[in-house]
Amino acid sequence: MATVAENRYGKEGVRLVRVHRSPYNGNTFDEWTVRVLIEGDFNSSYTDADNSKVLPTDTMKNTVYYLAQRTRTTAIEDFAKELVDYLIKHHSQISAANVDVDRKSWTNIVTSNNVRHPTAFTQGSNEVQFTNVRRSRHGDFTIVSGLRDLKVMKTADSSFVQFYRDKLTTLTDSTDRLFGTNVLATWTFEDASAITDYEKTRQQIRSLLLDLFAAHQSQSVQHTLYAMGKLVLDSVKSVNKIQLTMPNLHCLPVDLSRFGEENKNEIFMPIDEPHGYIQCALTRPPPKAALSSKL
């Protein structure tokens, strides 16, 4: 005898390009990839081959395009919330809906005379913005947003010295090294219902991460990661947790002495693997009043 336990299903890889046309401010161009997963009263589809309650995944795909045409929002969080609400409202067998939206980075082309072109765009990097939005039928939204593939590099103010050594350690101290990483940042909103401008919050967090990385006197990846996360929590009160994943983008100095040349810390060989992988989550301590009430 087998019993159906946790289960969900949906549609993944729903790709969408949306152009908002304005005769006054120019156009906007968005490229999203959406995943929809639903939970609910679907046990009979597994146990009895009964499809009477199964919402086709093709219908979910169509729902994405339908709402994309109707929505006026520009933030991926707001669109995901609208999609979750629509699914729960219109299909009584759904108990919870989960939506992921990824957005690629497109910006208006700035021409050689420093003019922003109103209807032409460029994809300047592989950076992706994303969100995960979930709500049960009688519950509140949970929203986790972030960005990935944000590649950054420091060519100064980075060292790694006095680390733990054993008999297999061959790495030497470095007081002036290149520090490159591919940032994955994920943050959790403390009260999702209180956020009115997700896009503004995302850009604020991104700017904070970049500003800190650029200015920090780094003693290690861990040292800089913590400072970046702490700055976000100190500055953005709507976020109560941030997780940062920062793998090394190694650039190894090339030995030029065999060619009769001196490498003045200027010529490097980039390598992809193996590489260091550093990940840490930071949370804001609970208010003192909440702590004292539990004592």
From TrEMBL:
Binding annotation for urate: T57, D58, F160, R177, V221, Q222, N248
Coiled coil: none
Active site: K11 (charge relay system), T57 (charge relay system), H250 (charge relay system)
Record's GO cellular component terms: peroxisome
Catalyzed chemical reaction(s): urate + O2 + H2O = 5-hydroxyisourate + H2O2
Compartments, record wording: Peroxisome
Associated pathway: Purine metabolism; urate degradation; (S)-allantoin from urate: step 1/3
UniProt KW Oxidoreductase keyword: yes
UniProt EC number: 1.7.3.3
Xref: Pfam families: Uricase (PF01014)
GO biological process: purine nucleobase catabolic process; urate catabolic process
GO molecular function: urate oxidase activity
Alphabetical keyword list: Oxidoreductase, Peroxisome, Purine metabolism
Enzyme class: oxidoreductase
The keyword Glycoprotein belongs to this UniProt entry's keyword annotation: no
Amino-acid positions noted as binding 5-hydroxyisourate in the UniProt annotation, renumbered to this chain: T57, V221, Q222, N248
Binding site for O2: T57, N248
Bilayer-crossing regions: none
Principal localisation: other
InterPro entries: Uricase (IPR002042)
Family recorded in the similarity comment: Belongs to the uricase family.
Role played: Catalyzes the oxidation of uric acid to 5-hydroxyisourate, which is further processed to form (S)-allantoin.
Protein name listed in UniProt: Uricase
Organism: Rotaria magnacalcarata
